[in-house]
Design goal:
globular
């Protein structure tokens, strides 16, 4: 892969922190200033975008398509895992960070939000990386 094709880990880290901050804001009491639609769906959308960004950070030379597929697989696996409600995993979910990562309950709308967030990440990534080729 050419040097133009590699992503900058520093830029990805900064972007990921911004995405996580925005996602946490939508779920905070201060996020109540946002429209209800944004309060309900932005957090899940940004969670998936942060996942895509994290995977790009871990593997900066990976193809955008690979990151897209892996992000969809992981996010859908996490969502379907919410159908499993054993005590041990619910105790992890009861801790704030565990709940933010694993979620609390299955929702089809979350799947749509994940898909949207991942597609946004893929589109920006693909477009940015292919401008130089």
């Amino acid at each position: 892969m050419s040097s133009f094709g590699r992503r900058s880990r520093l830029k990805l880290a900064v972007l990921m922190l911004f995405i996580i901050g925005a996602g946490l804001f939508t779920r905070s009491s201060r996020g109540s200033i946002l429209p209800v639609f944004v309060q309900q769906y932005a957090g899940d959308t940004l969670w998936a975008l942060a996942l895509y960004t994290f995977l790009a950070f871990v593997s900066p030379g990976a193809a955008a398509k690979e990151l897209l597929l892996l992000s969809v697989f992981i996010s859908f696996a996490v969502e379907f895992s919410q159908l499993y409600q054993a005590d041990w995993i619910n105790s992890i979910r009861s801790v704030k960070i565990g709940g933010l990562i694993l979620g609390y309950g299955f929702s089809w709308s979350d799947m749509l939000c994940y898909t949207t967030g991942i597609l946004v990440g893929f589109a920006v990534d693909f477009r940015k990386r292919n401008l130089w080729r």
